[in-house]
Specification:
With 104 residues, this protein is mainly alpha-helical. It is built from four helices and two strands; from the N terminus they run βαβααα. The protein has a two-stranded parallel ribbon.
Length: 104
């Protein structure tokens, strides 16, 4: 397995490797998901990556994208801001955009 370094703040990979058994399967830890995908493209390793990012690099790196063979964990995300920002039209647009993207 190739992952984003588990000790990095907000590591994408950490929720998927939450036990010692799962962490023992990790052969490579990169600093960024793009470097992880690059390593996967040149080896027999596998990685769990956001679908949009894997799709972006699939042709360039000749990646084979497969569905996860396990129950998908979910992550709770929060948006917070000062109440005055909630009345700003630009902020409202950004909020709607982020919520839409996160629902995908």
């Amino acid at each position: 397995h190739a992952t984003v370094a588990l000790d990095r703040y907000a590591s994408f990979s950490l929720p998927w490797y939450d036990t010692a058994d799962k962490q023992a399967r990790i052969a490579y830890q990169g600093n960024a998901m793009v470097s992880v995908l690059n390593v996967v493209s040149q080896t027999q390793m596998v990685a769990i990556a956001p679908r949009w990012l894997a799709n972006e690099f699939a042709d360039k790196l000749a990646l084979q994208i497969l569905p996860l063979p396990l129950k998908v964990n979910s992550r709770t995300c929060y948006l917070s801001w000062h109440e005055a920002a909630g009345r700003d039209k630009g902020h409202q647009w950004m909020e709607e955009l982020l919520v839409d993207i996160c629902k995908r």
